[in-house]
């Protein structure tokens, strides 16, 4: 009967959208399979520049720069921007690529407790002695589906003269009234200075990442960011997909709204069934189970019922906080969502996760 995928980052279903696929085929035919070059030698075509311009417009920023992935965008930004006289303050649960990017830079490093504003303030006070301060956080955290308190972060940043950087991989395209992301959702688009995000999740799901922000910063990255300077240009088909995905999202937010309604349906039905779902309103819906073995056997049994989900346990999540991370997509039908909830209820009862 087929298996329904509930563990992809394909939040808007755009990776199988016919117009996105057609755009990739057209770009492939018109611009070739690849550039065999980094951007600054002979790896820049009109479509790369158009996509950068479109990304900046989408986020209402001055400019944007493409990378082969958001991992690269995160690996390349801190070292290019910060010197040993500066400081970076990072949420302890930030994505591995932010952590690696920060490791590569020579700035003074501060790690604040997850979304803990008191701790961030204490660290900002301590960091006053440095020339420049950058607060770095995921906009939405992928393991818990929780959203960074950006209003409070931006207030603190203003008070202590810091810049704010957000990683929007799990927000771009669907959070906020027009899908611009966490900064739009929380009304701080004019206060967040730098956004890094991916083209490999909601925006077509192929590959690629970017930084968007003030033009002088983007100019600096083009001169200094190592993953940009020393890695191959994005292939035309990938650029075509992302560009079409952004067109669709700028035309209408109907797809994002449909995903939000399905997320709501899943979260409320699962809660009514007796499960604890972490986070709020986000399509990442972690079904909290606690025990690692329980998460793994339940995920296996879900597959037997045609639902593809994965159990996460230590060291990916803290000890005793094992879970099955469900991800909702606009391509799921209401029937798919209901089928998933029914399967969870049956499997949860069978393994003692529900009474
Ligand atoms: N940042 C976050 C929060 C992510 O979840 C991911 C992907 O897992 C990345 C960065 C890396 O994105 P990409 O797959 O484009 O390298």
Automatic annotation (TrEMBL):
Residues 3-344 form the Aminotransferase class I/classII large domain. It catalyses: glycine + acetyl-CoA = (2S)-2-amino-3-oxobutanoate + CoA. Its EC number is 2.3.1.29. Pfam families: Aminotran_1_2 (PF00155). Keywords: Acyltransferase, Pyridoxal phosphate, Transferase, Transit peptide. InterPro entries: 2am3keto_CoA_ligase, Aminotrans_II_pyridoxalP_BS, Aminotransferase_I/II_large, AON_synthase_class-II, PyrdxlP-dep_Trfase, PyrdxlP-dep_Trfase_major, PyrdxlP-dep_Trfase_small. One of its GO terms (cellular component) is cytosol. PANTHER family: 2-AMINO-3-KETOBUTYRATE COENZYME A LIGASE, MITOCHONDRIAL, CLASS II AMINOTRANSFERASE/8-AMINO-7-OXONONANOATE SYNTHASE. This is 2-amino-3-ketobutyrate coenzyme A ligase, mitochondrial. It comes from Eulacestoma nigropectus (wattled ploughbill). The lineage of its organism: Eukaryota, Metazoa, Chordata, Craniata, Vertebrata.
């Amino acid at each position: 009967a087929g298996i329904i995928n509930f563990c992809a980052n394909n939040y808007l279903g755009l990776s199988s959208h016919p117009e996105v696929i057609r755009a990739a085929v057209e770009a492939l035919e018109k611009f070739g399979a690849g550039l065999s070059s980094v951007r600054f030698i002979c790896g820049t075509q009109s479509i790369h520049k158009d996509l950068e311009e479109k990304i900046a417009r989408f986020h209402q920023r001055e400019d944007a720069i493409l990378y082969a992935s958001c991992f690269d965008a995160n690996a390349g930004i801190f070292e290019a921007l910060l010197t040993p006289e500066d400081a970076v303050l990072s949420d302890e649960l930030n994505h591995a690529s932010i952590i690696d990017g920060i490791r590569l830079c020579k700035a003074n490093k501060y790690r604040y407790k997850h979304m803990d504003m008191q701790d961030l303030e204490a660290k900002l006070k301590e960091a006053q002695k440095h020339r420049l301060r950058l607060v770095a956080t995921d906009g939405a955290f992928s393991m818990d589906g929780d959203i960074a308190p950006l209003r409070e972060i931006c207030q603190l940043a203003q008070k202590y003269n810091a810049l704010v950087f957000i990683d929007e991989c799990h927000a771009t395209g669907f959070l906020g009234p027009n899908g611009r992301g966490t900064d739009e959702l929380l009304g701080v688009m004019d206060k967040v200075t730098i956004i890094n995000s991916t083209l490999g999740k909601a925006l077509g799901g192929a590959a690629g990442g970017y930084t968007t922000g003030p033009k002088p910063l983007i100019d600096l990255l083009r001169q200094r960011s190592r993953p940009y300077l020393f890695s191959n240009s994005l292939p035309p088909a990938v650029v075509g997909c992302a560009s079409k995905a952004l067109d669709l999202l700028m035309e209408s937010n109907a797809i994002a709204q449909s995903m939000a309604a399905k997320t709501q349906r899943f979260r409320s039905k699962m809660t009514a069934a007796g499960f604890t779902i972490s986070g709020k309103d986000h399509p990442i819906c972690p079904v909290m189970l606690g025990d690692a073995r329980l998460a793994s056997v339940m995920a296996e049994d879900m597959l037997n019922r045609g639902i593809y989900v994965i159990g996460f346990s230590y060291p990916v999540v803290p000890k005793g906080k094992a879970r099955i991370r469900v991800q909702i997509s606009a391509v799921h039908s209401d029937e798919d969502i209901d089928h998933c909830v029914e399967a969870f209820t049956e499997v949860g009862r069978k393994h003692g996760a529900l009474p």
